[in-house]
Amino acid sequence: GTDAGAAENDSEARLRRGLHRATATNARLSAVVLVLATIYVGWLAQRFAASQALAAALMAVGLTAAVWRWSIASAASIEIIPGRGREPRFYSALDQNAYLVCLLWAPATLLVYPTIADKAHAVTYALCAVGSMSIGSMYLLPTAHRGYWALTATHIAAFFIASVFIESSRSWVTAFLLAVYGVAVYRISGQVRRTTRRLLRIQRITDR
User: Fold this and answer.
1) How do residues 135-164 score in pLDDT, each as one tens digit?
2) What is the Cα–Cα distance from 37 to 41, expressed in whole angstroms?
3) In 3D, which of 97, 82, 109 has the Cα closest to residue 27?
4) Cα separation of 55 and 37, whole Å?
5) pTM strictly above 0.70
């Protein structure tokens, strides 16, 4: 009756609170990493693309996104018990923040990455891009999956274009592996989203 319903609601609230808190914490950590990646990308743009304007634009976008993401996560972490009305706004803000980050990585991969003559820096840039997707999966995928998909699709598409259509960075092997990776990410991300949704339903059943 009433007690069972209250217990069910309390269980759901605990799960939501835990997911909310983990998302906010990981988003703050990712903001710090984004600052470091932005500075590095800006330096690459200035050194290899020889464009101060491009470097300034990329750094402006990246640092703005990092500060915004930190503020979103900090505001959310204060909330001990997230309200149902605020949760969608929190996750929507993370989605929008991910869209902004796409404006950093897409032009960087298409305009800066092909100009990197030093192989060590080219590999490091690729690792930064992969790290962006990996870190994004920690806080975006379970809850703000639209932002994760936008970020991941941007990375894969930009590297694919650079690997196929830009001569200085052309690599058919890389293009093939990107296609395989994209399929794998699609399948895994779908499974994670479904698992997250099932978790609430399973917890409700076991608490009865």
Assistant:
1) 887 777 767 678 888 999 999 999 999 999
2) 6
3) 97
4) 13
5) yes
Share of the chain above pLDDT 70, in %: 80
Q: What is the rounded CA–CA span in Å between residue 172 and residue 174?
A: 5
- How is residue 144 annotated by DSSP? -
Amino acid at 31: A
* pLDDT single digits (tens) 52-80: 999 999 999 999 999 999 999 888 776 55
The first and second tokens of residue 160, run together, are 């694919």
The rounded distance, in Å, linking the Cα atoms of 63 and 71 is 12
* Two structure tokens written together for 78: 């204060």
pLDDT > 90? residue 23 = no
Do the beta carbons of residue 98 and residue 151 sit within 8 Å? Answer: yes
Residues in contact with 120: Cβ distance below 8 Å, sequence separation at least 6, in sequence order: none
